[in-house]
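lol ok so funny story. i was supposed to be doing the assay writeup but got distracted and ended up predicting the structure for this chain instead. priorities right. anyway since i did it might as well share w the group, maybe its usefull for someone
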Amino acid sequence: MSDELVIRARNLSKTFRVFDRRPGFWGSLRDCVDRRYRELTAVDHIDLDIHAGECVGYIGPNGAGKSTTIKMLTGILAPSSGELQVNGFHPQAERTAYVRTVGAVFGQRTQLWWDLAVAESLELLRRLYRVSPEDFAKRMARFDQVLGLGEFLATPVRKLSLGQRMKADLAASLLHQPRMVFLDEPTVGVDVVTKAHLRDFLRELNRELGTTFLLTTHDMQDIEAICTRVIVIDHGRIMHDGSCESLKHRYGGRKRLLLRCSRPVRLDEVPDLPWPDLEWQQESEVELLLIFPAQDITTGALLEHLVGVLPIADIAIEEPSIERVVQALEGFSSGTAQ
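and the output, tada:
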């Protein structure tokens, strides 16, 4: 990662004027002659710095402001207020020059031509981005190796499966080797083997070319495999900005300790332990599950108290996943945002 800023946002906000419908029949009649509107804040004065070469996960619940932020960063929407620069450009004001420096994959939309074959769409993009035939051939060979494009290059885009379309869109977004790539659910509909190849490919691009990625996804395995930094947004505001590990630590990641015993053990045989916030579950006659806060208690300390009391034959430790942490964080924010 370099000191160069690829994305710089200050007090970035986006509000929408939405129709405030009155309830009931009489309310509908009144709306015909006297409409009410209200302001909806989708992104609320956020600051955002992303350096060249970073892989950043941008996550949050539905309606949190993720898509609105990405649309402002890509130049699709103009901010209501604040300052924004990406790759040294103002995305909305300098859109023609700006789009040559970025790539984007949106899970619900394709940048390919619906009735053209995939190969024809990519050839058109080659000409638009002014990629030389030699570079195009090299990059297409690499895409075929990772994504298996050769199987459907002659197929019209409208006939592709969701997974095939995502592969083709990813190739299209990387064709001109952009400095900054926005990825929205890049592995949706993709099989497990291709997901692994795709994650390796994105890490390789980041390592070899210094490509910067901003990734939004509901697949937390993508985040942990690709990203070194995670930004959590909710209600239009950034709630966390840091590493995956700091997110787990800050918001109460919990470990799971599975104890397999040499004989049947009941929960009422478990001794009292000198820590609060412990959760026991009976998994089977010989298996007990202990869930505990990872930042407050070490596994070794727990086992010191348990080994001499319970007939433990084997143990398995599951570290807190970022998915569980984000779910807990979303529940916390929903409960306190009233």
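Residues 254-319 form a domain with the Alpha-Beta Plaits fold (CATH 3.30.70). The CA atoms of residues 55 and 227 lie 5 Å apart.
back to the writeup now i swear
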